[in-house]
Specification:
The chain has about 250 residues and is an alpha/beta fold. It has a single domain, classed as 3-Layer(aba) Sandwich (Rossmann fold). It is built from eight helices and seven strands; from the N terminus they run E-H-E-H-E-H-E-H-E-H-E-H-H-H-E. It has helices at about 15-25, 40-50, 65-80, 105-130, 155-175, 195, 205-210, 220-235; strands spanning about 5-10, 30-35, 55-60, 85-90, 135-140, 180-185, 245. It has a seven-stranded parallel β-sheet with strand order 3-2-1-4-5-6-7, with helices on both faces. Helix 4 links the parallel strand 4 and strand 5 (about 135-140). Helix 1 (about 15-25) crosses helix 8 (about 220-235) and helix 4 (about 105-130) runs parallel beside helix 5. The longest helix is centred in the middle third of the chain and has 29 residues, at about 105-130. It starts with 6 loop residues before the first strand and ends in a 6-residue tail after the last strand.
């Protein structure tokens, strides 16, 4: 197992990519801290991890709050004495909007979760990894950072920020043997898909038009990102740091 006896924190672990990754990490031998503001969703993920024979701990955490993020890291250390992987995955979408129609509160919320949440994760997780002289800090970015779509300027900017933050953190962490890598998914079948399509429910005609722009002819499933995260967290990716791995079926070509 590629992550045997390791300890991983997954933020936004209550659904979608986070939930799938928590289970995938557990299948590879890791013990998981499932962090989310959605306690009910996080509880389901913990139960799923336990069903596949893994160990998991639920922590209710708002990634925009320093105290919550610090407590999440401390909980991992208190419970299992180490922290090997931190997956800064929690994020929020943007409903399709022209820039003049985006209110300041929406901008602040998107940047608080998508950027500050990653920054706080690094602030509290990387010192632990530096001291251990091992660890992997993963970030969920987006193809929006690389190829923005109309009406998603604020979301795209937030994801562009974390791609640059990934590179800066990778330089800082490398002397300690710690790697920092971003993952850029194309649209994925998660609860965020409806707002991504700018619909209360998924518009299947609109979805078909979007899928037609992806050379491999489908959207991501959460397991596509989870498999990538497992690889990047493992020693198989020992020379990968500071990059943004596109998991997009060719969308960004």
């Amino acid at each position: 197992m590629r992550l045997e006896n390791q300890v991983a924190v997954v933020t936004g672990g209550g659904s979608g990519i986070g939930a799938a990754t928590a289970v995938a990490f557990a299948r590879e031998g890791a013990r998981i801290v499932v962090a989310d503001v959605n306690e009910a969703g996080a509880k389901k993920t913990v139960e799923h991890v336990e069903k596949v024979g893994g160990q998991a701990l639920l922590v209710r955490a708002d990634v925009t709050r320093a105290a919550d993020t610090q407590a999440t890291v401390e909980q991992a250390l208190t419970t299992w004495g180490r922290l090997d992987v931190y997956f800064a995955n929690a994020g929020v979408p943007q409903w399709k909007s022209e820039v003049e129609d985006v209110d300041e509160a929406t901008f602040d919320r998107i940047f608080a979760v998508n950027v500050k949440g990653v920054w706080l994760g690094a602030k509290y997780a990387l010192p632990v990894m530096k001291k251990q002289r091992r660890g992997v800090f993963l970030v969920t970015a987006s193809t929006a950072a690389l190829r923005p779509r109309l009406g998603s300027q604020t979301y795209a900017a937030s994801k562009g920020a974390v791609v640059t933050l990934t590179k800066a953190l990778a330089l800082e962490a490398a002397p300690y043997g710690v790697r920092v890598v971003a993952i850029a998914p194309v649209a994925t079948h998660t609860p965020m898909l409806s707002p991504f399509m700018n619909e209360q429910e998924v518009d299947h005609q609109g979805l078909a038009r979007y899928i037609a722009t992806i050379p491999l002819g489908r959207l991501n499933e959460p397991d596509d990102i989870a498999s990538t995260a497992v690889f990047l967290a493992s020693s198989d990716a020992a020379m990968i740091t500071g990059t943004c791995v596109e998991v997009d079926g060719g969308r960004c070509i």
